[in-house]
Design brief:
The protein has 725 residues and is of the alpha/beta class. 21% of the residues lie in helices and 26% in strands. It folds into four domains: 50 residues, no CATH class; 211 residues, Rossmann fold (3-Layer(aba) Sandwich); 132 residues, Glucose Oxidase, domain 1; 156 residues, Sandwich (Immunoglobulin-like). It has 17 helices and 38 strands. It has a seven-stranded parallel beta sheet, sandwiched between helices. One of its GO terms (biological process) is response to symbiotic bacterium.
């Protein structure tokens, strides 16, 4: 700050007025960045970027949401001495950046809670339909951030959404109660998934930061939310939000999360719902825990019986008046529409005369699944069968449809469509079977879960792991019905929805449990414990499946595997990392001092005498891209060797760990040196290297392996993903 100014706010305002006399500051930032947000024309923004003292001017972006049997499925219902005491949990505060909260829910009951932790500095902001008494000893804070949203789209319309931390969407309430909802007996959605609903850590405290509105999540609001969460004193940040991949110094979630990490806060984010397409990930910064989605051992089956007598198993949450027992006429939507994409059942696309009283077959894609059912209903259809194409495979996502409807996997869908196209009088029946438990195999990777490889930094493997994200029961807003459609007048306290948005809070709160048990562990150590203890196979030894293709999933799908919270409490060894190592990571990316300053908010110059390599960054997994260009290593068939180094920290008892490599192919020779590591003391560190030698392979080839260190009690596992480009 120039000496002519007495405070930063005056300096900021003077800088802004030099570019635009009429512009006003929306937010000033203390932690995420040293600066402010405002509304400018492109010309004014360019002028401001040339003003002395301005590091960068970044355009606003809009991000999107990545839209209770799971404690039992994860083993958290077991009475075990491994689980930390609830009083340790109650000192942990989880910050949720999302669409807000419906504070009246029983899931936010604070009857069993003691005083709010003395470290807490947050507050319950008053606003439309929300006041200070909306918070309690469970929901200890609620803030809202709308200035960026309003600058982009105009003032919040209080007739359609609350200008406060109140949740009018449902997404935020669902993620919050998934993470840390208090136990509620006899919870269900229309009698489905009935039982006691509770979050993963029901004794943890929660704080809400509403940064997402009906029109989206704007980066200036997200930055302000992260800034306040750091200041308020959260221990874990959970964000089921994402956008397109940007360089780390341009990505506000990456920048804000770096600051949070440097304050000892673990940040968990959703991987995105772009699967099963390859390289479809969001939120790939190595200081962020990136979470994909898997299924649990519960589903909601529906029988679809064709006129031939053949029966298929689909899925549905429909709970209204059932169809008659008699078969009904069946029609393919594409044959009942004048639109070239009529098969998608888009709004006003169906011809009433061709669908009235019939079951309509609609294809997935193009618009929300529940909206397709509404389109069929409005056109006079009696029911709907939602069929999967290749992109969705055998994935069955259940929905609370407004008419009798069920979804069907790809193989069954193909048979059904052949029947509809070949029969002169096709008919079908749909029967709804309620809730089924102990479904196997489970988990399987959800088709929608975004996949690697990491397009931004190919030598960092993402996602980090998967957690339950399909058909998850949790709390819901009172503002909209379970479908989220404006015509849905049903009001529920719980809803069942799917997405990596649902898997993210599972991991956020498991991180909170680890933080409660091990307060001294860094965010990197906590993530390492979750990753190295994750499992990649079923009890019968077979690899976790990918439901998109029915084949064995890979580390590009599930990262280190499916989270195992009980094992994570005692990982034996961890791959730790501090701020200095992340700064070295930036140097390995050849970032300039300016780019490092933008990403990390500190002055740092890379040492020209030191060699910085991403291969040496201390990550719990390995991504090894090989180039296939002719001439590398003396010719296209010449062997190429790359070496990675890692450091393990002992967080358990003394012992000797031996390395073993499990490889699914002979395409790469893997050598670990040394093959034994002995630890005598707590927090002792030992390094090792891994050499990977491969001859050239066709571009697009992938292969996978696994490295494990074991002392006979602990298994410290790391996935290895090879790719040839």
């Amino acid at each position: 700050m120039p000496a002519t100014f007495t405070d930063h706010l005056t300096w900021f305002d003077s800088s802004l007025k030099s570019a635009s006399p009429s512009a006003e500051i929306l937010y000033t930032y203390k932690h995420v960045a040293h600066g402010f947000s405002t509304r400018l024309t492109p010309q004014e923004a360019h002028a401001l970027s040339n003003h002395p003292g301005i590091l960068s001017v970044t355009p606003e972006l809009k991000y999107t949401l990545h839209t209770t049997r799971t404690p039992q499925f994860l083993g958290l219902d077991k009475s075990t001495t491994l689980l930390p005491a609830s009083d340790q949990q109650s000192h942990v505060i989880i910050g949720i950046l999302d669409t807000g909260v419906w504070p009246e829910l029983k899931s936010l009951n604070d009857a069993a809670f003691g005083p709010v932790p003395a470290t807490w500095k947050g507050e319950c902001e008053t606003g439309n339909n929300m006041n200070a008494s909306s918070c309690n000893k469970k929901l200890i804070g609620a803030r809202f951030f709308s200035k960026g949203y309003e600058a982009a789209l105009g003032p919040v319309d209080s007739t359609t959404e609350s200008n406060s931390a109140r949740d009018d969407d449902g997404h935020g309430t669902h993620t919050l109660t998934t993470a840390a909802g208090s136990a509620v007996a006899k919870a269900s959605l229309f009698g489905l998934a009935s039982g006691t609903a509770r979050g993963m850590a029901p004794q943890a405290r929660v704080a809400v930061y509403k940064v997402c509105w009906l029109g989206g999540c704007f980066t200036s609001d997200i930055a302000a939310g992260i800034d306040k969460a750091i200041e308020d004193g959260v221990n874990v940040l959970s964000m089921s939000i994402g956008g397109s991949l940007l360089e780390y110094y341009r990505d506000i979630i990456a920048i804000g999360s770096f600051t949070a990490m440097s304050h000892g806060i673990l940040v968990s984010t959703s991987a995105g719902n772009g699967g099963p397409s390859q390289a479809s990930l969001s939120n790939v910064a190595p200081w962020i825990t990136t979470v994909g989605a898997g299924t649990i051992d519960r589903d909601f089956p529906a029988h679809i019986t064709l006129g031939t007598g053949k029966t298929f198993i689909g899925a549905s949450l429909y709970s209204g008046k059932p169809l008659s027992d008699s078969p009904l006429p069946l029609v393919y939507a594409g044959n009942a529409s004048n639109s070239s994409v009529g098969y998608l059942c888009l709004q006003d696309s169906l011809i009433t005369e061709k669908v009235s009283g019939k079951i309509v077959v609609c294809e997935r894609g193009g618009n929300p699944r529940v909206e397709k059912g509404l389109v069929v209903k409005n056109a006079g259809g009696a029911g709907m069968i939602l069929v999967n194409g290749e992109a969705y495979g055998e994935e069955l996502v259940a929905d609370p449809h407004l008419l009798p409807a069920a979804s069907l996997g790809q193989k069954s869908s193909e048979i059904l469509k052949k029947y509809v196209f070949s029969s002169t009088n096709p008919t079908a029946k749909i029967q709804f079977l309620g809730t089924h438990l102990e479904v196997q195999p489970s988990p399987v990777v959800a088709a929608f879960s975004s996949r690697g490889p990491n397009a931004l930094t190919p030598k960092i493997l993402k996602p980090d792991l998967i957690a339950p994200g399909v058909n998850i029961l949790a709390g819901w807003t009172g503002a909209v019905g379970p479908t989220g459609l404006t015509v849905d007048q049903r009001h529920v306290s719980f809803n069942i929805i799917s997405g990596t948005s649902m898997s993210c809070p599972h991991v956020s709160v498991l991180a909170a449990i680890l933080k409660g048990a091990h307060p001294q562990w860094s965010p990197a150590a906590i993530r390492s414990a979750l990753m190295t203890t994750a499992y990649v196979s079923y009890k019968n030894g077979e690899t976790i499946q990918d439901i998109a293709n029915g084949q064995a999933a890979t580390p590009f799908d599930y990262g280190a595997g499916h989270v195992d919270p009980v094992a994570a409490l005692d990982p034996g060894l961890v791959y730790d990392a501090n701020v200095d190592e992340y700064l070295g990571f930036f140097c390995a990316l050849n970032y300039t001092s300016l780019e490092i300053k933008l990403a990390a908010r500190r002055d740092f110059t890379c040492d020209p005498k030191r060699e910085y390599r991403v291969e040496d960054f201390n990550y719990p997994s390995f991504a090894v891209p090989f180039e296939t260009a002719s001439g590398i290593g003396g010719g296209s068939d010449a062997a190429k060797t790359v070496k990675y180094s890692r450091v393990l920290t002992n967080v358990g008892s003394a012992g000797t760990y031996k390395a073993s490599v499990l490889s699914g192919s002979s395409k790469v020779k893997i050598v670990v040196e040394p093959q034994e590591l002995s630890f005598a003391e707590l927090y002792e560190k030992k390094g090792y290297t891994v050499s990977f030698t491969s001859t050239s392979m066709p571009s697009g080839t992938t292969s996978f392996a696994r490295l494990e260190w074991t002392d006979g009690k602990h298994r410290v596992g790391s996935p290895i993903a090879f790719s040839w480009t």
